[in-house]
């Protein structure tokens, strides 16, 4: 039996998607005696983060509670850097893990680098090659990539992007995306306890017989005119009596004010609060089509064979498009309505997209990541 002390790993995150994509890693680290897993949340998101923590059974060891209403990128980043630095000084981790491309991930990586603590990057190497789409995530991800010790690339496409940037091959590992682990986990939880996802029953009864379109939207580069166009498209498609829209509205005020102004009161459009992960998984399963600008939803939909129309000009996740399950449609209202109408009216076009693929992984990413970390301690 080894008497070595477990390696202290600090996992840092702050928003809903990071929490969803890191809980499988945290579960795996906590179950492994080679590691001591310390969890620090910045709470860049508050309610939407807490929804995930509760479902995943994670109680953070440190909570910076930084979220401010309608926060600016510079104030947020400054608070994150000083707050996360203080936590790192107190925790003295052997390594730090960050995920993806948020302000928290970027500041967490930078604070670790300032202390010469190795940073490991989950979901590394995604590139759109346009620094304003997604903004500011494309650059956040590149900044983290410049400092990371281990780069956990979800796919061979993201691995190739890192190798082209001269990251040493031995530091890049294709693991799959942990979002698929998370989706499998939550699906199993719902299988054991269907009540976890039964909260949409009333809405499902109200919309029985109609074809459900699930919508999410939150991208900063879509604020203003983009959000107006998205709302207009939803309004227009909702004129069809055979359609119903379920739209859990992101808590960002720049999203809510537009959606509430344009879509409130429409009989077949349900503007609802952000769903917890089991209920969002339920929405993914009952929706005929997903219309979104989300990163995570672009990864989940192909795994479930749900056609997803991506309201972006470009994507750092081309695998869903290549697999045929996702299509980039931008944010022009007329284009969105045309694409939705094609999927609704042309069975062949729909069937061509509605095939399950797993370009983003097999649900075993977290255990691969933990084994790779074990080689470093
Ligand atoms: C952030 C990330 C983005 C990620 C997205 C996932 C950055 C710069 N942006 O964008 O990469 O795709 O999260 O959703 O890191 N709010 C609440 N409660 C919440 C969450 C948000 O009220 O639980 C409101 C607050 O007014 C907050 C605002 O939303 O100021 C914006 O939050 P912020 O994290 O800055 O940006 P997001 O647009 O959510
Ligand atoms: N999601 C959720 N509830 C919702 C909307 C989304 O649990 O009401 C999940 C979704 O399944 C995905 C993640 O949140 O895993 C995506 O988060 P978001 O779109 O906020 O961020 P992005 O992925 O674009 O960074």
TrEMBL record:
Enzyme Commission number, as recorded: 5.1.3.14
Alphabetical UniProt keywords: Isomerase
Enzyme class: isomerase
Coiled-coil ranges per UniProt: none
Domain UDP-N-acetylglucosamine 2-epimerase, first and last residues per copy: 28-373
Listed GO MF terms: UDP-N-acetylglucosamine 2-epimerase activity
Family of this protein: Belongs to the UDP-N-acetylglucosamine 2-epimerase family.
Protein name listed in UniProt: UDP-N-acetylglucosamine 2-epimerase (non-hydrolyzing)
Organism: Novosphingobium silvae
């Amino acid at each position: 039996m080894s008497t070595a002390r477990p390696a202290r790993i600090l996992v840092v995150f702050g928003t809903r998607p990071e929490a969803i994509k890191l809980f499988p890693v945290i579960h795996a680290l906590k179950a492994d005696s080679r590691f001591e897993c310390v969890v620090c949340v910045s709470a860049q998101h508050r309610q939407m983060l807490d929804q995930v923590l509760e479902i995943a059974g994670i109680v953070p060891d440190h909570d910076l509670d930084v979220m401010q209403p309608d926060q600016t990128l510079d104030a947020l980043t400054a608070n994150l850097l000083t707050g996360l630095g203080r936590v790192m000084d107190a925790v003295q981790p052997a390594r730090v893990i960050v995920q993806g491309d948020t302000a928290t991930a970027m500041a967490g990586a930078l604070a670790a680098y300032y202390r010469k603590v190795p940073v490991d990057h989950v979901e590394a190497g995604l590139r759109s090659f346009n620094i304003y789409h997604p903004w500011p995530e494309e650059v956040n991800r590149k900044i983290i990539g410049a400092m990371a010790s281990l780069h956990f690339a979800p796919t061979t496409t993201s691995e190739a992007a890192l190798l082209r940037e001269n990251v040493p091959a031995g530091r890049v590992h294709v693991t799959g995306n942990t979002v698929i682990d998370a989706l499998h986990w939550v699906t199993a939880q719902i299988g054991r306890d269907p009540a976890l996802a039964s909260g949409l029953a009333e809405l499902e009864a109200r919309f029985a017989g109609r074809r459900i379109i699930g919508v999410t939207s939150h991208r900063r580069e879509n604020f203003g005119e983009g959000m107006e166009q998205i709302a207009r498209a939803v309004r227009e498609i909702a004129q069809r009596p055979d359609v119903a829209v379920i739209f859990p509205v992101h808590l960002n005020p720049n999203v809510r004010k537009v959606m509430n102004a344009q879509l409130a009161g429409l009989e077949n459009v349900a503007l609802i609060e952000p769903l917890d992960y089991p209920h969002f998984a339920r929405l993914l399963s009952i929706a005929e089509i997903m219309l979104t600008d989300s990163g995570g939803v672009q990864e989940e939909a192909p795994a479930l064979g749900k056609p997803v129309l991506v309201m972006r000009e470009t994507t750092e996740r081309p695998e869903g498009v290549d697999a045929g399950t996702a299509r980039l449609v931008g944010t022009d209202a007329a284009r969105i309505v045309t694409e939705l109408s094609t999927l609704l009216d042309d069975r062949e076009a729909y069937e061509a997209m509605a095939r399950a693929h797993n370009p983003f992984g097999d649900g075993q990413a977290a255990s691969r990541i933990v084994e790779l970390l074990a080689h470093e301690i």
